[in-house]
Amino acid sequence: MYKFMISKGSLPEICKSIYDKHDADVIGTSSGTVQTLLLKNPQDIQAVLTGEFSKFNSRGFLLNPNDVLADNLLFMNDVQKWKMVRQKLTPVFTSARLKNMFYIMDRCARDFVDLVDDNPQLKKKPYTLVYTYTTAAIGASVFGIDTKTRSTMDSPYVAMMWKALTPTLKGNLILLTANIFPNLYKLLKLKTLGDYEKPFIGIIKKVLESRKGDTQKRHDFIEICLELKKQGVLKDTTSGYELELSDELLAAQAFFFFAAGADTSGTAMHFALLELASNPKILAKLHKEIDGVFEAGNGDELTYDDLDKMQYLDMIISESMRKYPPIGVLQRICTRDSVLPSGVSVEKDVVCMIPVMAVQRDEKYYPDPEVFDPERFAPENASNIKKYTYLPFGEGNRHCLGARFARVQMKVGLARLLRRFTLTPQKMEPVEFEKSAFGLRAADLFYDLKLRNI
């Protein structure tokens, strides 16, 4: 962690450099006063994320109760609260729900392509375009499509979430204080999302109030919230634990959609496009697949089931998230003394770090790891990938709840974009990632989108 404070790069890169230098299954280090173990062995990773979940159920993020948004997000440390909230939100991401919600994402993807077409200046900043799409699509999926706006890309949430999710010195210092100087973090009552608390909660309260009594089926998150609020106080029959679904708690879950999905999905799409520009043969094969699906359908229409036919696109997204995992480091804190499968003892309060980027670029699991090769995820090859060496959405009980949503969002966005546009060939240069405590981000990298002759 100290090295992260003085370095220019990201924490995932620092973890990878440590990972590559040591042959041991577990590497001991520290984050200030907090003992930390960097895990390399997939069996140890599996134990922490799944097998010994009762002893590693906390993400290890120190939160202050006065930080209303952060303390109510799905990475909350209160296990009973987390379990109940997750249980109630899981149905949001079933195939049936996503199929009903698809019209929202497809409308956003259409508007995204029009945005690219109409804004030559924005094309000079392609990540901004992609990020606008992922943020606006999440906004429409949470709040519904605003019929008063011409385009879903004119979302009021884009600027707010860009500011909230872009790594800053202030944000990194708050995260580091929480990890390195926890007592100081508590004493100062610092907030990781304090700047967005009042405006975002205010928006949720206003929308929930305006939608009361609305009988129109929209299939968005607000509709789910209204259904949950009708249930009143939730109760776990086994433990007796009770939870009231307050507007603040629901606002935090809505914010979580943005926090967990906007930047991460945008980053995965961004790197996929960069690699496609650098690999013309892969791009040509993808164009052929996308064109085939559109031409076999009804003109310019695209359905939820059509996405399943785009297997090669799915492979490309998977490979993008392997080489450039949007979240490059996972962590869990030990809540009870434990022993890992490798034989290493882990005491209570020790943090276990899982260096996702390092694992996914380890040549033991992925030969020629720096090569962008979607065939790694072809059906006949994907089954050979060693378990717990591919972790872009995490694994186990706390894996990303919105993983299926994210894939649909990325696939429909890329399918529509690459139906109308192609990429000027360019050489992929080594990437310098932005300074970030968890993610891999390189918003300044450029690729040239140009209209296709179809």
UniProtKB/TrEMBL annotation:
Membrane topology classification: Peripheral membrane protein
Reactions accelerated catalytically: an organic molecule + reduced [NADPH--hemoprotein reductase] + O2 = an alcohol + oxidized [NADPH--hemoprotein reductase] + H2O + H(+)
SUPFAM superfamilies the record matches: Cytochrome P450
Residues reported to bind heme: 400
EC numbers on record: 1.14.14.1
Cofactor(s) for this UniProt protein: heme
Molecular function in Gene Ontology: heme binding; iron ion binding; oxidoreductase activity, acting on paired donors, with incorporation or reduction of molecular oxygen, reduced flavin or flavoprotein as one donor, and incorporation of one atom of oxygen
Alphabetized Pfam families for the sequence: p450
Iron found in the keyword field: yes
GO cellular component terms, semicolon-separated: endoplasmic reticulum membrane
Taxonomic superkingdom: Eukaryota
Cellular location(s): Endoplasmic reticulum membrane; Microsome membrane
PANTHER family per record: CYTOCHROME P450 (PTHR24292), CYTOCHROME P450 28A5-RELATED (PTHR24292:SF84)
Family per similarity comment: Belongs to the cytochrome P450 family.
Protein name: unspecific monooxygenase
Protein source organism: Chrysodeixis includens (Soybean looper)
